[in-house]
Write a structure and sequence with these properties.
The protein is 40% helix and 21% strand. By secondary structure, it is α/β, with parallel strands linked by helices. Bound molecules: nicotinamide-adenine-dinucleotide. The site of nicotinamide-adenine-dinucleotide has 22 residues, from α4.
Length: 368
């Protein structure tokens, strides 16, 4: 059994803008090490397309072993058109799915918070998004992205058939629902669970298990159920009705991208993927911005590093028990925005456009 090293942070920048945004996270970690004497041990390695180019695989055994040893994995992003033609099992995204699955990171937390300074960056009217604070808890290691059988097969009439299987067990549902209920208690105490119980048996099981866990252990939390397609509609109609949204892997993928646009830019939203704590209280976890490798802007120095920096704030809070430091970092981000600094994706009238590294430096200067 490989032990988790308490202060070990593994940086996996990946592809596209990944290295640009993770470079800013590295500066933040170094600042905490130098100024606050926090003894983070940083390691860095390849993942995704860049790993495929060098080693013929998007995730080497060596990097996987390092991931097993690390309390925190900070991932940038993987993928891009360069690897479109690569065989499916070697695609950059397979590295991510393997890390999530093998490290058993079953609970994906995706906050969607609308910063007051950026209310106008949303495509929705300010009154709809102002004060928005949603937490999406997405199941991450089950459902249709992992279910078997899967594949593309020839069928009799010369056509081909693509197959993916959507499955959930009771335990897979209950453990992620527990995370959602526990987090709701620290917020506005409301969970809306989303599935398609009207047309999918796995959705029906999801609804029943969430309800029975609620009735057994979380009667004090307000629970309601919503069909996932209705949730997609309600998110743009009246997003402030939501506190915690609990949902499966596939619907969570889509609903969280939708929620991200309520806040203005993909470049602002962090995420945490958490495993279960073992009997020694150790937990494996991976933190990453919710955006991808953004090949359209890679190498230009314009990527917004805030999502990655806020992902590290989540790591401070959930993996390292450093709540005060997490708050300080989140506040530093707010202050940089208060000063009118904006990367290109969130730029608006009368604000000052800054590069990726200038935004990182500004946030660090606010930490001083
Ligand atoms: P994307 O998130 O990379 O980009 C979508 C749009 O948002 C682009 O216009 C991009 O410029 C912009 N954007 C994203 N992050 C930004 C940031 N930090 N600052 C400013 N603008 C930002 O999604 P996509 O274009 O659909 O995917 C590109 C590649 O990334 C694909 O290969 C995809 O598979 C991969 N991907 C990886 C992850 C991951 O590593 N977790 C997630 C999603 C997509």
């Amino acid at each position: 059994m490989i032990k988790v090293k308490k202060r070990r942070v593994l940086l996996l920048p990946g592809d596209g803008i990944g290295p640009e945004v993770i470079a800013e996270v590295k500066k933040v970690i170094n600042w905490f090490n130098e100024k606050k004497s926090l003894d983070f041990e940083i390691d860095e390695d390849l993942v995704g397309g860049i790993s495929f180019d060098k080693h013929g695989t998007p995730l080497t055994d060596e990097v996987f072993y390092k991931a097993l040893e690390s309390a925190v994995i900070m991932l940038g992003a993987v993928g891009g058109p360069k690897w479109d033609g690569v065989e499916f099992s070697k695609k950059p995204e397979r590295a991510l799915l393997k890390l999530r699955k093998e490290l058993k990171l079953f609970a994906n937390l995706r906050p969607a918070i609308c910063f007051e300074q950026l209310v106008n960056a949303s495509t929705l009217k300010p009154e709809i998004v102002s004060g928005l604070d949603i937490l999406i808890v997405r199941e991450l290691t089950g459902g249709v992205y992992f279910g078997e059988p899967r594949g593309i097969k020839p069928i009799e009439n010369g056509e081909r058939k693509g197959v993916n299987t959507h499955t959930y067990t009771s335990n897979e549902i209950i453990r992620v629902a527990r995370v959602a209920f526990d987090l709701a208690k620290k917020r506005s105490n409301r969970v809306i669970s989303c599935e398609k119980s009207n047309v999918m048996e796995a959705g029906q099981l999801w609804k029943e298990e969430v309800q029975s866990l609620h009735d057994k252990d979380y009667k004090d939390v307000e629970l309601s159920h919503m069909l996932a397609d209705n949730c997609a509609m309600q998110l743009v109609r009246n997003p402030k009705q939501f506190d915690v949204i609990l949902t499966d892997n596939l619907f969570g993928d889509m609903l969280s991208d939708e929620a991200s646009m309520l806040t203005g830019s993909l470049g602002l939203l962090p995420s945490a993927s958490l495993g279960a704590k073992n009997k020694d209280g150790e937990m494996r976890a991976m933190y990453e911005p919710i955006h991808g490798s953004a090949p359209d802007i890679a190498g230009k120095g314009v990527a917004n590093p805030i999502a990655s920096i806020l992902s590290f704030a989540m790591a401070l809070r959930y993996s390292l028990d450093l709540d005060k430091e997490a708050e300080a970092l989140e506040k530093a981000v707010q202050q940089a925005l208060n000063d009118g600094l904006r990367t290109k994706d969130i730029m608006s009238d009368k604000m000052k456009e800054v590069s990726t590294s200038q935004m990182g430096d500004a946030i660090i200067s606010k930490l001083q």
